[in-house]
Amino acid sequence: KSVDYFELTKRKTVNELLTDIIDYDVISFDIFDTVIFRKVEKPVDIFNIMAKETGLNDFADIRKKSEDFARKKKEKTCGTREIVLSDIYECMEERFSVDRKWMNREIELELSMSMPNEYIFQVYKKLLRFDKTIVFMTDMYLPLNVIENLLSKNGYDEYDQIFLSNEYKLRKGDGTLQEELLKAYPNQKIVHIGDNYEADVKNAFSTVLNKL
């Protein structure tokens, strides 16, 4: 059993991509930089906005260090590096005295700075007309309710499941989250559409080989 993969670096027309994937039973979409774009050049720009609002010039650096620390702490205590946003802000408050109330502002910015990838949105809408099973998959610290709001706000309100790393305590990047996708849809022909071959396929394949 396997999950086939389409990467969005070589752009096809909507109908060409649809033709390539129409025979699959389950179509899995990566979320960030695939079905949803941010209205900033880089994700860290959201932290730069927060730096101005909080008055902390080094907010982006604090945010990054706190995420790294939270992942290490979670791995040490729970055997997984998958965290949620509240874990990060707990570290920010404990180690850098940043009020965790700013977590809500980060969520607000993620929502307001999001926009649909119109190319993929057209593919998505056409797939719904063919009654295809649509799922979303992502490695992300944002909690499930925020991911659901992001998808809904950008028009992706019809789908079967969300495979979210911090919910499953598994990662797309090492292939373990894809295993859950396969378990959820046995004997189905599945394809995943993403924007990063290395993150979505190569790293996962390397992890599988290392287990052999």
Question: Could you tell me the number of beta strands?
Answer: 7
CA radius of gyration is 18 Å
- Residue ranges: pLDDT <50 for 5 or more in a row? 207-212
Strand content: 5-15%
Could you say which structural class the secondary elements and strand pairing correspond to?
A: alpha/beta
Mean pLDDT figure: 91
Write the H/E string, N to C: EHEEHHHHEHEHEHHEH
**Biggest sheet details:** 5 strands, parallel
Order of strands, widest sheet: 1-7-2-5-6
* Beginning-to-end CA distance, first to last residue: 16 Å
What count of helical segments does DSSP give? 10
Instruction: Tell the overall outline.
Output: globular
Portion in helices? 40-55%
Topology:
Layout: E1 3-7, H1 14-21, E2 26-30, E3 36-38, H2 44-54, H3 59-78, H4 85-96, H5 102-112, E4 114-116, H6 118-129, E5 133-138, H7 144-153, E6 161-164, H8 165-168, H9 176-184, E7 190-194, H10 197-211
Parallel strand pairs: 1-7, 2-5, 2-7, 5-6
Antiparallel strand pairs: 3-4
Helix pairs in contact: 1-6, 2-5, 3-4
